[in-house]
Amino acid sequence: MAKTAAVAAQERRAQNTKILDLRRLEAFTNFFVICSGTSDRQVEGISDKILEDLEEQWGARPWRREGKRKSDWILLDYVDFVVHIFLNETRQFYNLERLWSEANEVEVPEIELPEDHLIYDDDLNDDFDELEDYDFEDFQVSHDDD
């Protein structure tokens, strides 16, 4: 189930997704899934996708959910594992990986996202190259004083 959560996060472009195995550390849960988003909107989207996939594939709902209103850190507690979805800055501040540095890291399944969802720097540069060829001197703005 933790791997399902990690894959769901990656499908919403989560960054630096990790699964920590806490079983030998006498923790309150067996696994942490930790990932980041670049905006509170993305953090919410990652959370929604994880909730949807875990319910659809495993019939699982979180025992507890926290952080929806603020969205800089959303926690989904499934008892046997806990998902932490952070904004990048919040993740750096709390640094759970350092706090649980004795935990073994579980390999996160890699996924391939469709290319039509990716934006490459080269594509952006092509757009700017087209603008360089445009003659802006002939462009005039008219202002209506009505």
Query: Which CATH first-tier class would you pick?
Result: Alpha Beta
Percent of sequence in beta strands: 15-25%
CATH topology: Beta Polymerase, domain 2
The residue-averaged pLDDT reads: 84
Helices, strands, pairings?
Blueprint lengths: L1 H10 L3 E7 L9 E7 L2 H19 L5 E3 L6 E5 L3 E7 H7 L1 H4 L4 E3 L14 H12 L14
Parallel strand pairs: 2-5
Antiparallel strand pairs: 1-2, 1-6, 3-4, 4-5
Textual characterization of the structure:
The radius of gyration is 21 Å and the shape is globular. The protein contains five helices and six strands. The chain has a six-stranded mixed sheet. It has helices at residues 2-11, 40-58, 88-94, 96-99, 121-132; strands at 15-21, 31-37, 64-66, 73-77, 81-87, 104-106. The longest helix has 19 residues, at 40-58. The N and C termini lie far apart (63 Å).
Features of the shown structure:
six-stranded mixed β-sheet; 146 residues; 5 helices; alpha+beta; globular; Beta Polymerase, domain 2
Summarize the structure.
The protein is of the alpha+beta class.
